[in-house]
Design a protein that fits this description.
By secondary structure, this protein is α/β, with parallel strands linked by helices. The chain is built from 11 helices and 10 strands. Helices cover 44% and strands 19% of the residues. It binds 5'-O-[(R)-(carboxyoxy)(hydroxy)phosphoryl]adenosine and zinc ion.
Amino acid sequence: MSEDKKKDVLILGIESSCDETAAAVVKNGREILSNIISSQIDIHTLYGGVVPEIASRKHTERIVQVVNRALADAGTALQDLDAIAVTFGPGLVGPLLVGVSMAKALHYVSKVPLIGVNHIEGHICANYIADPALKPPFLCLVVSGGHTHLLMAEDYGVYRILGRTQDDAAGEAFDKVARAVGLGYPGGPKIDAASKEGDPAAIPFPRGKVQDSEYDFSFSGLKSAVLNYLNQMEMKGEKVNVPDLAASFQMAVVDVLVSHVMRAAEEMHAPALALAGGVASNSTLREKMRQAAEERGMRFYCPPPVLCTDNAAMIASAGYFAYERGEFADLTLNAVPGLALRHV
Ligand code: KG4
Ligand code: ZN
């Protein structure tokens, strides 16, 4: 190895903030060596949403196997790691504590450095894995079940938040609407699939505007409009065309997201746009956003769906950039359910 070639940095990522028990080993923040995701969706589907106590118990049952499998698949021993990165917020407190406790135990026995990662930053960093050439600055839309943020990634770990949702997150709106029309949980993928057979112009749902805040989002008005529409149809004794409703609702969400992001892109002269979070796996959102970005000559990035929804590779990637900055945690690391994204 030549002297100026940097040693490879191997990070184990651990993620348990919601209903995915996940562990991954990532090299130099960009190359996945293993990526294990044990989903609890089937169990929570029975209840129409994530039940925090059940999620905690399932994480406890699975975390050791998931971590062992991630290390084995990567061909990495605990001692070969340069750091253990774990999500410590935001998320559900019980589920977060399982991952944090596991990471602290591994750190304690192995002395491998510990890093606490913000889950939202993890979603953003999924783009560094999906495209190893991606470098800041870029505009990023984070749309997940709990968060909707429009931000400028000015540098690694340096974020300027331009807008956020004032009520429901985009994914939450998908989940609530899907439940109301009987499509089940999680709503996003179900609405995405149902919309393929529907007409996006069939029902004119409102495009949510927020007064005095050009980049903030609001999805509760749209959700209420869908619920009112369902009530009216029931009162009239008319059958709801679910594919038309799904396609029309989805297009209302996508229109608002695209128009906000493109306004910001033009005002900020953003050279590139990246999508992140579970809702970024939505086929219409990806297509419309790509089209709008390319029309404006912006480079467009969007991770494959498996890196958009919760996973630990993105946590290991965020951990790598924290490692490079020397930002380590110790055994006092605790779960912070309402953790905000650190920003400038
Ligand atoms: O990022 P994520 O896995 O977890 C959170 O950090 O919240 O996002 C989950 C959210 C759920 O609300 C789910 O319905 C939504 O992402 N989602 C989708 C799609 N796939 C997942 N929303 C729209 N279209 C999809 N294809
Ligand atoms: Zn997430």
